[in-house]
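Protein in question kept underneath.
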Amino acid sequence: MADPGTPISPSLADMQNALLAVDRVRAGRIIRDSCIPGSPFTCLERLVVPALEEIGRRWEAGDVALSQVYMSGRICEEIVDTMLPPGDPRRIDQPKMAIAVLEDHHTLGKRIVLSVLRAGGFEVADYGQGVTVDQLVEQVIRNKVRILLISTLMLPAALRAKEAIAQIRKELPETKVIVGGAPFNFDPRLWTEVGADAMGYTASDTLARVKEMAGGMQS
């Protein structure tokens, strides 16, 4: 996440304004004018991901509406699909990934993380919210997910993640799990207690963890 005291580049500021105005055409033009042809990942990491992160921070501060956060993510995903179509070989050559909100129905955190991961060029299956332990375990095992992201809002759901992770490890011992959400932010040791491999403090931090894990795997 960008430091609020750090100057923002003109192109990044323009991108944020275009997203908040829900101006798809302007956002696309900024991307085309700012990015080096043939380097989509560099462009996404330096422009799209920081813009989404800053918009998420501004929502937390009460400066932008939830609808603006949601639409910003949708626009960025459309841009990514243009730059890196789902069939692009650079997307295919990666382990299977999925994200879910365990037992809770608060979706904003997942929405931001999912948009940032997709903006980073990753294909991530969205298992939705309010997912039970049994449902999550069944889907992960059936789809042979290699990297799983679990988001929770309340402590009971965070503690239930331990049960889900233990069951998944019985069938898929190599699967890596990243957890995130308020309970893990409040207790920095909780992620290790539930058996996760890592914790994502922010969307960009989660993206970094995913890159590290994916880099050590074969798809």
